[in-house]
Every structure is written in C-alpha cells, then in structure tokens.
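Repro case for the chain-ordering regression, as requested:
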Amino acid sequence: MAEKKVTTPLTDDKIKDLQVGDRVSITGVMYTARDAAHKRLVQMHKDGEKLPFELQGQIIYYVGPCPAKPGHALGPCGPTTSFRMDAYTPAVLELGLKGMIGKGQRAKDVKDSMVKNKAVYFASIGGAAAVIARSVKTAEIVGFEDLGPEAIYKLEVEDFPCIVVTDAQGADLYDIGVQQYRID
Amino acid sequence: MKEIEVSKIVDVVEELCIKAACDLDESVENCLKEWQKKEESEFGKYSFEQILENVAYARKENLALCQDTGVAVFFVDVGQEVHIKGGGLEDAINEGVRRGYTKGYLRKSMVNDPVFNRKNTTDNTPAVIHWNIVPGDQLRIQILPKGGGSENMGRLAMLKPSDGLPGIKDFVLKAVKDAGGNPCPPIVVGIGIGGTMEKTTILAKKALSRVIGSPNPDERYAKLEQELLEEINKTGIGPQGLGGRVTALAVHIEFYPAHITGLPVAVNLNCHAARHAEATL
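-- result from build under test --
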C-alpha cells in the first residue's frame, strides 16, 4: 500500500486526509512523553506553569528510548503501550495536541476527545525499535531530565513509519482488523 | 566442591544481558519466519516484515531489539557442590546487570519504589532472581529480560477444581483477548497450573524460558498447549493487534501438584521478542 507523506506540525487540513488504515511516513518534529511525563505536564498546566514545549499542532511519541551509541542520534526507540497515557490524554488534547504515536487500543473517552479535538492516533511497530531509530535524525532533551528514559525529548525525524490506527472520526483499526479476521 | 569466583559470574552476566537484548535466539527468529508464511492480513504481513528486519539489523549493529530491555529476570540453578568465592552470588548477578546494561547501551527501566518515589535506579538493578538448588557442581544462569508491555498483561486465577479444563481455557483466552495488541503480538503464552498462588506465577514465567514451540513432555499438557494455540489464533487479534491469523507463536504450560481445594492458573505473556540467554559454569 502506498504511504502518505506527512509533515509536522499537524493541522486540521492535514488530519482530514488521514484515514484509519493509512500507512504514513512522518517528517518533522515530534516530542516524546510517557506516563510519568504526562502526569507532570497535566499538573504543570493546572498550576499555571509554562510547559517544556508548546502542544499546539504537535505529535507526542510514547517512547522511552535506549541510550544512543556514539554516532547515533538516539538508541532503539519503539513505541510503548498507549493505554497508560489514557488518563492524561483528553487533557493534553484540549491543549492542542494533534497527534499521538504508540501501540495498542485507546479508551473510549480518549477516542471521543480525539473526535472533538480533531486529533489522530498512529501506531508504529512494537519491538521494531532498532529499525525505527534509523528515522530519528536529532534528539535533544527539553524537559524532565531527572526521569531518565522517561524525559521529554524533541526529535527531528525523517520518514518515520507508522499506521493510522484511530482517525479523527474515531474509526479504530484495532476493532476493524480483529473483526475481519476473527473465526467464531 | 567446585569453586567459582564471583568476578567470573559478573563477567558472564554482563555478557548475557547484552546478548539477550541484541541477538535474538535463532530458534525464535526461525519460529517467526515459519508463522510469517501463515499470515494473511496486510498489517500482519507488514508487522512480520518489520519485526524480522529489526531482528537482523539489531544483531548486525549490536543494538537492542526493543527499547524496553526489561526487568532482568533470572532463573539460576545452583549445584549443591558449587562454592562461590569472593563475594555474594546475588550481588554478583546485580553487578553483571549494572555493567551489562551500561556497556550495552540498554535502557534502565527499574524504579526504586513502586508507589511512593518511583525514582529510576539508573543501572537497571535490582534483578528479579528465581533460585533453584540442584544436585551437581554446575552453576546455570539463564536471563529472560522481560518488557513491561507484555508483563502488565499477566493474570492469575485461583480456580475451583470443578472449573476444570473448560475453566482453564476460558481464563487463558480471556487474558489473551483482553490484552489485545498491548503485549506486542505475535506473543508467546506462558501458563502455570497448580501449586500455590506464588508457585503458579513462577511456573508461568518458567514456561516462557522453554525453547519456543517445544511441547510439554506430558502429552496431555502438550495437547492442551496445541488446543489453546489454535483457539488463540482464531481470535483475529493478529500481529500488533491490527487483525490477522497469527496472534500467538507458541503456548507453553508448566504444571505442579496442587492442594485438594485448588486449581491455580497464571498467564504470563511474552512479546514476539522472546529474549533469552544462558550460560553454564
């Protein structure tokens, strides 16, 4: 299947073109954050503090990378399981986040919030971490360095491969795919 | 009495940590290639291609297959006629983990307290070690680095004896269906049956340490493994949970005698990167 090329930041127009089941390659900037970082981001917003990065139009990649070997921008960096971020996701979508990359199905309230806020959820292949790291060109810690592998990194990526698994209409490949192949 | 220096053990564990994380055992790679032929779905096929390309690339570049290089779980068989010299065996294993995870550029994923602090220990210690005292003069150390995505999908049930085989099957299938794409299918399903609450969970982990696809030597349990594998692969979950024919690569059961009142069952799932390495001193 042909890949759709997507550049960041994401806009409503770009998102309109992304349908569930599309293979996508992303070029541009994305930020990493896992549950520990999400917890802090949401708390900082509540406390009226400035966040380490502006969420508007951005993509968060759910990943805790390995350390980079000399000559590499980043170590292996495949997706982590997304449902751990579900508790915080509607709050960050309200702040303008437009894309998320992870693996595994999201909760209903997350999908509802994605429809409301016109956001898209991509999956990359869990456990293909060394290959995925080839598309990361630069990596820089921009927040929560004390969290170690859970710090927020700003990544510049080129042709980062993923699949639209939940689109801005709420269509979910985890339901569609399983229904198609289930044998009763 | 055979003497083994702790410095030797540290070196061996360091090497095992890196080997397990970066160089997937060929038995697992070959198993993936066999199942790849049976996958029909577009995203299932794509997942297999990416997974196998990653296995080859990680091995060639000596990079971790997956960024989640896991909790360092060990099964250690200590021969009764072995004398460990120069320090503690547990300390030596943890020192090997510390060195291996640092030298191998592996991710350090352990936090020091599960509830109140959750501060990263920065060296992936402590390991989780299961000890066995065995006859003989050998020390066998096996590492199974265990990722959080699949570990979080584990389940335990204290079934009643009257639940029997149907109860076991229902419980295992529900665990796999509820896990969906989260544990990075195609998975290996480790099942412990019998013993006590803690014994059965360790058996489920032990089941994951077997050579992939090797049947239980007891043919009744081997048949149950096969039946469960067929049922699991009818769920349609498929590689990465995106729909397909191949949800599990293998089902391994380990069993133990049980109390007259009980039928404990534990399910421990492993992602497709079923990482192991071992050494015998």
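Ordering looks correct now. The helical segments of chain A are 12-16, 35-46, 89-94, 108-117, 129-132, 173-181.
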